[in-house]
Amino acid sequence: MNSLRRSAALAGFRLVIAGIPILWLGLFFLAPFLLVFRTSFADPVIAQPPFTPLFDAAGGIHATLDNYTLLLNDSLFLSSYLGSVRIAAISTLLCLIAGYPMAYAIARSPQPWRTLLLLLVILPFWSSFLLRIYAWMGLLGTHGVINSLLLDLGLIQRPLALMYNDAAVYLGIVYTYLPFMVLPLYAVLEKHEIALREAALDLGARPLRVFTDITLPLSMPGVVAGSMLVFIPAIGEFVIPALLGGLDTRMIGRALFDEFFINRDWPLAAAVATVLLLVIVLPLMVFQRGQARAHP
Amino acid sequence: MPSGVPVIRTEGLCKSFAGQPAVNGVSFGVEAAEVFVILGGSGCGKTTLLRMLAGFETPDAGAIYLDGVDITHMPPYERPVNMMFQSYALFPHMSVADNVAYGLRKEGVPRAELRARIKEMLELVQLSGFDARKPDQLSGGQRQRVALARALVKRPRVLLLDEPLAALDKKLREQTQFELMNLQDRLGTSFVVVTHDQEEAMTLASRIAVMDKGRFLQVASPQEIYEYPCSRFVAEFVGTANIFGGHVSGVSDQVVSLTADSIASPLLGALHSGVAAGDQAWLAVRPEKIQLGKEAPEAQAGRCVLTGVVQDLAYYGGRSVYRVRLDGGHTVLVSAQNRLRSPTRKLEWDESVYLFWEAQAGVVLTQ
Amino acid sequence: MKGRSLAIYSWLAFGYAFFYVPIVLLVVNSFNASRIGSHWGGFSLHWYQQLLDDPQILAAAWLSLRVAFISACGATLIGGCAGLALGRFGVFRGRMALTGMVAAPLVMPEIITGLSLLLLFVALKSLTGWPESRGFTTITIAHITFCMSYVAVVVQARVATLDFSLEEAAMDLGGRPFRVLLDITLPGIAPALLSGWLLSFTLSLDDLVISSFVSGPGANTLPMLIFSKVKLGVTPDINALASIIIAVVTAGVVIAGVLMLRAERKRVAQRP
């Protein structure tokens, strides 16, 4: 398709079309990202901006690894990184457990229903994420619907602490990201389910064997894709732990936010961000390699 | 008809993709009002060649001339050459009239003339009254005619057609073939057609170019291609041919005799290209040129007679095809017209038969 | 067999209840006269009244809508170009860079995107004096940047399904590249541009984290205001606000769905 390159008008046209996004992303995505990297080697100062420049007045390079040393020696950050990964992993597993049967049921529904059921999974995604988390606050709070209901029924004597803990964070993440698990699972299940299932039954496999022999292995790409779609954004999640989590809920997004807005230590926040990016890129690379192996 | 002056002419066109040559040194000329068909299997480079003529691909080497002007590097939107796409590529969001008008609008043709030309063109392709329809409201044959009208309304010097009939079903294809020829006859536009279908090539073409591996193997009239193929590839690609390999044992009086392995009697064919005794050569004989019988035919000069056993036969209504195993082990296909409704001397499986052909029915090939 | 199906469909019903019960309760509660959500104090539009009398909320909503509108338009334009380039141009110089830069914002935590853009705006200000203050402009730029990737992905997918010979045919008939873009390509990718625009509008309207980083004093978007209010617990006027937003979004999605379904039916019905 690149054979028209000698035509000047076409070359100019393509230059403009490809050039606009490249310029925009270069300026507003790549450059800022390099700035984060640079800032992570600066010292905090009380000034505007609140960090030392990379090049000092004499033209020498001013860079320090202090932020990274601090980061690695501070148990708060270490436990926040680990907490993020743990909470994201558990939430992903919960999404998979909740989402697989849903996707399976949708894929096996008759056609007019299938579209509607799918639409109902997508619909919450269009309404505000913040407000959906807020809706749970109304349910889980000390004076929330669940506690009032249980109190009225006489099942409990005192309100339960349903909110401001890790469990509420799991709930929030599952609630928010479940559609991202269901959709890719549905896509693979729908593709293989009916014909192959009938073939396997015809060849004498019992329904449970059909599931373990045919459906489950073939749906693995969907499992992996869905898991990535939940796990990756969950690691950097800020809003859910901030609203539903307790004081001891350690997640790195929240730690970064606080470091930046409360302690105003921009260089340390930049270092936290750089390391967070590594935490996210690693599973992505594993995922990419798996994909490349699956589709050589 | 052909004036001898080419409208479009190429010189040594070459094009490679990722180091793989797709078109490898193709030169030809197409004369006014000629239908030039490029025939080849998939991957032979015929589509790449057509796309170079249209301007979608830039040749790595060689040149294209239109009326003597070098257009090799002219972008497609400036070339007075139009193309009918295999998928028809009708703009789905435009009506039939807007589709046909598109090219004229880009030319800036005045409104009144534009309307007149669209009307005339739609009449020509028998689609009057379909102006307001959208492409997905048309049948396959109607779509094909819109695509044709859209390309022809620009009055191109050359119309390029990429597998023009491939998307139609068999019945419609035959009818459309004749319509296409009629139209071409009336307009006198030069057509360059690309196809993999030899029947289509035979009926449409004034000349056929058989293409393989990026090269033209033979360029000739349909009849010449069929009757006098220049190589085993052409003989087998266009129609069916029985091919016997061997050595020339004698050349006399326009008749070549060939000694083939494991066939006792010499095989006879017409002298076509220069061969001498001892040369390696092949004899190609079309199945319908071989006659079959239960009794030995009269011996004649220049008649080649072999014996064998009917191994298989297939009845096609108008004709039957027999697969005969020669005594030497070769299998020969013979096609016979079923002239009589119930022939008294029907041939059956495992029957011993004589087969024979006249020397001028066989073609001696050296490659 | 029957029992297993029943179990699976019960699970599905439970899943949908999980999705929708909190939202329904929130909407019901927005009409609750009582301040405490768990006790029904009678039907009331009090919280809606309070919402409309709150200039802070109205200002934030107006800012958010303006940002979302401009961001969606900008993201559709730039992201559309990116999707077109990736879907149509084959191999070109800068393709690798563009592919990477389009994919990266999709996996980049918002918190890093926000931080990095703030650092850029601060650096730009000390270099060039622009942007003088952070607010509408900086938020819009940030939103265009993270929304355009979504548009690019949607457009690229759509472009891949389009018959390339349509554009070639238009060019063959004398259309210059830019005309062909307008005449043929744009109508072809229009559905993708529309869904990209809607997606961007929603994402922008919803964004809290990035806006928090790149906005300045006094410029509060609606999510920023909501967040600062609900951090401390449930406030009934936010229930009302949430209900309005949910009603608008639901209506929008349902209308869009019905329109698309009708167009599809019409198309199918007209086939010969």
Low-confidence stretches of chain C: none
Shape call of chain C? globular
Portion in helices of chain A: over 70%
What best-fitting shape of chain A do the alpha-carbon axes yield? globular
Count the DSSP helices of chain A. Answer: 12
H/E topology pattern of chain A:
HHHHHHHHHHHH
Main sheet characteristics of chain C? none
CATH top level class name of the largest domain in chain A: Mainly Alpha
CATH architecture of the largest domain in chain C: Orthogonal Bundle
User: Biggest interface, and residues per chain?
Assistant: A-C, 84 and 91 residues
The helix count of chain C comes to 11
Proportion of helical residues of chain C: over 70%
Gross CATH architecture of the largest domain in chain A: Orthogonal Bundle
Structural class of chain A: mainly alpha
Kindly give the count of domains of chain A: 2
CATH class division of the largest domain in chain C: Mainly Alpha
Q: Which percent band covers the strand fraction of chain C?
A: under 5%
Class from secondary-structure proportions of chain C: mainly alpha
The biggest sheet of chain A amounts to: none
Query: Can you write the helix and strand succession of chain C as a string?
Result: HHHHHHHHHHH
